[in-house]
Sequence to fold (303 residues):
Amino acid sequence: MALIELNNVTKAFDSNVILQGTNLTVNQGEFVSIIGYSGSGKTTLISLIAGLQKPTSGEAKFNGEVITGTGLERGMVFQNYSLLPWLTVEENVALAVEAAFPTWGAAQRAEHVAKYVKMVNLSHAAKKFPKELSGGMRQRVSVARALSMEPKVLLLDEPLSALDALTRATLQDEISAIWEATRTTVIWITNDPDEALLLADRVIPLTPGPAAKLGPEILVPLPRPRDRKTIGASKEFKALRAELVDWLIAAKGAQRTTLTRKFVLPDILPEDLTTKNSLQFLQRRGPRRRYEVNAEEVEVTQA
Fold:
């Protein structure tokens, strides 16, 4: 049985259709990446899986049950860290642990917190507050907090998009190593083709909105662990990247519409400035309409 299912899901806000007829299946232990342009509905899609939003039509299911709201079995990592500024690193993680394992004793919770803080290489900063951390360190805390709940699915909504390239690469490698160790099911939202192919088992593109749909999946059979220093030069990686980018570009082009407008030009004639009396136009009203200069024959009868 699939762990995550979207069956003909449509999501609209009033008359604005964000997703239409979306179908998705994710199995236990998979690392799946959803890629698309900004504004295509990627965050809406992952919010439906997280239970933060409900479909307008269709069904979103977790482990065979319809998703009706949020749950601890689905851990979420947002773009903006979402840390409580008055809590330290370990306290932010501990807050999630207390919610997930309320029957545990203090010592067991503390040990669990320390385990996941160490997993993201932040043991040296466990007592620091978010304001004392870099952007990359804050995102590590977010990942540790989500993982500490031991969810069955980890949902990441462009978690590295706000980071510089070097920090982003470092965290990609660390999260990949964590996934190798835990095999937690991951759904990763991104707009970066290289990131998607480096991390995922399957990459599924999303058409540009409105009324976005998931496109054909691209399987990534590259062996793990993946070394970014060598994988980028491989023919297989380049072929997968070309296939993915070409599909996204073609989907973007297919969304273009042609608008034809008819412009009605004013029915006027310019003054003829080539004649000797050309300056006489200053004495007149200006360019005249064509019907004002049409020749007409008028019969005049004298009384």
About this structure: The chain has a mean pLDDT of 86. The radius of gyration is 31 Å. Residues 169 and 195 are 9 Å apart (CA to CA).
